[in-house]
Amino acid sequence: MTATSAPTKQQILDGLAAISAPDGSPLPKTGTLSEIVVSDGKVFFSITVDAAAVKAWEPIRKKVEDAVRAMPGVTSVMVALTAERAGGGKPAAPAHAHNHGPGSTHAHGGGPAGVPGVKAIIAVASGKGGVGKSTTAINLALGLRDLGLKVGVLDADIYGPSLPKLLAIKERPQTLGGTRLKPISSYGLTVMSIGFLIEEETPMIWRGPMVMSAITQMLREVEWGTLDVMVVDMPPGTGDAQLTMAQQVPLAGSVIVSTPQDLALIDARRGIAMFNRVNVPVLGIVENMSFFLCPHCGERSDVFGHGGARKEAERLKVPFLGEVPLDMAIRETSDSGLPVVATQPDGPLAKIYREIAGKVRDQLQGGGAARAAPKIVIEA
Ligand SMILES: Nc1ncnc2c1ncn2[C@@H]1O[C@H](COP(=O)(O)OP(=O)(O)OP(=O)(O)O)[C@@H](O)[C@H]1O
Ligand SMILES: [Mg+2]
Predict the structure, then answer these.
(1) pLDDT at 85
(2) Which residue has the higher pLDDT, 305 or 344?
(3) Which atom of ligand 1 is nearest to the CA of 325?
(4) Which tops the pLDDT comparison, 320 or 204?
(5) What is the mean pLDDT of residues 300-305?
(6) Cα 61 to ligand 1 centre (Å)
(7) Ligand 1 within 6 A of 277 CB?
(8) Alpha-carbon span 307 to 311, nearest angstrom
(9) CB 324 near ligand 1, within 6 Å
């Protein structure tokens, strides 16, 4: 035991009794607190509230964090505000609109501050779920790494974080000097996910303000260090998380992932429209699960009518970044924490992702992005 050993869970609960819920009752009596995790002076827990009451709870979350931080022996604290989800599955993207007209561009002076030390932040997004954003994000990040860039990955999918699984990460982030979190290193990438901080099984939904506070914390309270590129794995849809990203950081651009089907392409268009709305340039479209190469006979079949995304990119005048086949190796490696670019670097799939990464880098460097964007210079 050191002189300032961390408080026990009970001591934290006792300390929180002085803080009241919006209805006036002492916080520990409200049944809103999750399991309190105390590890090596670091304290993590969540407050689960009714989605409608989130606004009233945000200042309380802050108060709770401050109170716990002030306890002797506490080196850092992260308190997340979450709302209970009724059923399984993901919530629909929150519908409330932000007034975010074209006049509110943040790309130039007076916009949001960047993350210190991070040269370019790009979002990997799609209008629709399950099209392979996370898989693309991690392999694109590794492809950029292979080009000699220093790369970070931020998992902004707080509805269903993927990085713990994609990289088989079980450890919790360490803290640095009080309140800042040290990201995790994996395959030469600097990575952070809300999934490193909360239990995987916790059923929850994050709405407007909660999304913002979680993403803001992951951007601003994580010691990202010096990065050439931060790749952000976005949640599906065109809701608050995406708008928050655009509001919180100057995004250098977005990469839209789509499958070849028409339906997914409609969603991709929606994604592109959203980034246009917030003046974030679209760096290009990746067609994922584009075609199927039979592992036995080597014959290629266009399961979903391949080529749709390329045509769509032409029509929308955004760059086409490449086609990734539907391949069991991709599924198996990403689902077992061994991303294909890292584990099969000499294979054909790694080559495809590196080519996509090269185009993304060129887009960032050359300002070839379709819309007015801050020019980012990346020295490899
Ligand atoms: N090219 C591919 N070939 C085979 N399987 C793939 C490919 N791309 C992705 N997958 C698999 O498809 C599933 C969904 O992929 P992923 O999680 O990357 O999608 P997502 O768009 O991030 O989903 P979500 O919207 O839920 O965040 C995963 O099991 C993944 O391994
Ligand atoms: Mg995902």
Answers:
(1) 42
(2) 344
(3) 1
(4) 320
(5) 67
(6) 34
(7) no
(8) 6
(9) yes
Mean pLDDT of 151-168: 91
| Residue 99 confidence (pLDDT) | 34
Nearest-atom number in ligand 1 for the CA of 130 is: 23
Which residues in the chain belong to E strands, given as ranges?
37-39, 42-49, 76-83, 118-125, 151-155, 175-176, 180-181, 184-186, 189-193, 227-233, 253-258, 282-293, 300-301, 320-326
How buried is residue 209: exposed, middle or buried, by Cβ count under 10 Å (0-12/13-18/19+)?
middle
For residue 131, which atom of ligand 1 is closest to its CA?
21
Q: Is 288 in the pocket of ligand 1 (CB under 6 A)?
A: yes
The number of angstroms, rounded, from the C-alpha of 239 to the middle of its chain's C-alpha atoms is: 13
pLDDT tens digits for range 94-117: 333 333 333 333 333 445 678 889
- Find the 189 Cα to ligand 1 centroid distance in Å: 20
Given a cut of 90, whether residue 26 has pLDDT beyond it is yes
Mean pLDDT in residue range 125-134 = 89
Q: Residue 344: pLDDT band by 50, 70, 90 thresholds?
A: very high
| Residues 80 and 46 sit within 8 Å (Cβ to Cβ) | yes
Q: Which residues contact 303 (CB under 8 A, 6 or more apart)?
A: 289, 291, 292, 326
**If 0-12 CB within 10 Å is exposed, 13-18 middle and 19+ buried, where does residue 345 land?**
middle
What span, in angstroms and rounded, lies between the C-alpha atoms of 380 and 377? 10
Across the range 195-216, mean pLDDT stands at 65
For 281, other C-beta atoms within 10 Å of its C-beta total: 24
Tokens of 174: 């360490």
287 vs 357: CA distance, rounded Å? 14
Cβ(231)–Cβ(141) under 8 Å? yes
Nearest one of 189, 178, 86 to 143, comparing CA atoms:
189
- Of 249, 183, 179, 243, nearest in space to 209 by CA: 243
* Res 255: pLDDT: 96
Q: Quick one: which of 290, 284, 213, 277 has its CA closest to 248?
A: 213
Whether the full predicted model's pTM is greater than 0.70, yes or no, is yes
The torsion of the CA quartet 296, 301, 304, 307, rounded to 10 degrees, works out to: 130
pLDDT on residue 21:
93
Which residue bears the tokens 């809103």? 32
